[in-house]
Design a protein that fits this description.
Layout: H1 7-16, E1 26-29, E2 34-37, E3 50-53, H2 56-61, E4 65-66, H3 81-92, H4 100-105, H5 110-121, H6 125-142, H7 147-153, H8 159-170, E5 183-188, E6 195-200, E7 203-209, H9 215-225, E8 229-231, H10 235-248, H11 265-274, E9 283-284, H12 285-291, H13 298-306, E10 319-320, H14 333-351
Helix pairs in contact: 6-7, 12-13
Length: 353
């Protein structure tokens, strides 16, 4: 990974709780005999009392015990208590209109909750809850309910307010929604950050990290090409979440969930070529172009690679510079390196079977 790995750099990352070192480094605290993720929320130890490790096994072999707060042996970093509880509450009561008073009644500071959801999903708690509530309303309309039924399900007393909110979400008036194909979206948690997934009965249309700068434009383009989007539940989302869980736990190297990607014929060929790069291996843009028998189309291959809207499953992260450098990645370079390291470990494990 193109970053300094000396102890001073790692200690600075520990103080900053830098997530880019997730899976690359762990810290052992000599005074307690415990080792943690660098993002652990516990009080930070003194510089003289820490030792750093490249992997969890090395930390354990040195006699350190895993921290009970950040749980470094788990595949996923533990979500904060507030995030976990409030997500479950929203799922259990999707039609509820949450207020700051509701959060205070549960013992949470509204501003802290707002920042936590903003960091995790790129939206505030209120926006997250509203998207789920509106998704429920769209579901009511899809199932043949009236606009009034949907309005009441979403908790809106004003018909005009409901129409305005639903239009912002899916780009059409609620009375016309049943005439369109409706895509279903949901946030999926992974060890390296939240991902937005968009699906329908045919398969996965989009899977991107929340921090990807191009995500708003990708959603807009998907809406224009395919149809409106609502937040909600869907069997395809369940399948996708299951396969992602197995991938991140090292149990799955080939996805079976169907994909629905709309692009040019050339882009489709590039995305297909990406899926033929074996797990644990990489290709340069030039090598990928040559494999497609288009050796002079290196830049076009790079553009098509960047236009991919289904991260991980269509492994654009497996394309690197001709000199072996980590080239640009919309989900951030540290995630690209994390994914490559993860896949190399999976490939090594398979070769030993």
């Amino acid at each position: 990974m193109p970053m300094l790995r000396d102890d001073d750099t790692l200690f600075a990352a520990l103080i900053a709780r830098d997530p880019s070192y997730e899976g690359f480094a762990y810290v052992g605290v000599k005074t307690t005999g415990i080792f943690c993720r660098l993002t652990c929320p516990a009080r930070k130890p003194k510089r003289t009392n820490v030792v750093f490790f490249d992997c969890r096994d090395t930390a354990q072999e040195a006699g350190f015990r895993p921290c009970l707060r950040c749980r470094p042996l788990d595949i996923k970093p533990p979500a904060s208590e507030a995030l976990h509880i409030l997500r479950d509450r929203i799922k259990a009561e999707p039609d509820r209109r949450w207020s700051a008073g509701d959060l205070k009644a549960l013992g949470y500071d509204p501003s802290t909750v707002r920042r936590a959801f903003q960091r995790k999903y790129g939206v505030t708690f209120a926006q997250y809850a509203r998207s789920q509530r509106l998704g429920l309303a769209v579901g009511t309309l899809q199932q043949g309910g009236t606009v009034m039924d949907a309005q009441l399900d979403a908790g809106y007393e004003s018909g005009s307010g409901f129409r305005e909110a639903i239009s912002r979400l899916i780009g059409d008036a609620p009375t016309r929604m049943t005439a369109h194909q409706i895509l279903t979206a949901q946030w999926l948690d992974t060890p390296i950050g939240a991902m937005l997934a968009v699906v329908d009965d045919a398969g996965v249309h989009l899977l991107e990290f929340a921090e990807r700068k191009a995500l708003p434009n990708e959603i807009k383009r998907l809406h224009e090409r395919t149809g409106p989007i609502r937040f909600g539940s869907h069997a395809m989302l369940d399948l996708l979440a299951c396969e992602l869980e197995r991938y991140f736990s090292g149990q799955l190297t080939a996805f079976t969930v169907p994909l629905v990607q709309k692009g040019t014929a050339f882009e489709a060929n590039v995305w297909n070529a990406l899926q033929h790069i074996p797990v644990g291996q990489t290709r340069s843009y030039g090598a990928l172009a040559a494999a497609m028998e288009c050796p002079n189309a290196v830049r076009a291959v790079a553009r098509a690679n960047g236009a991919n809207q289904v991260a991980i499953i269509v492994p654009c992260h497996r394309v690197i510079g001709a000199d072996g450098s980590m080239t640009g990645y919309g989900g951030k370079i540290w995630r690209k390196q994390w994914l490559l390291n993860h896949e190399q470990r999976m490939a090594q494990s398979q070769s030993q079977l």
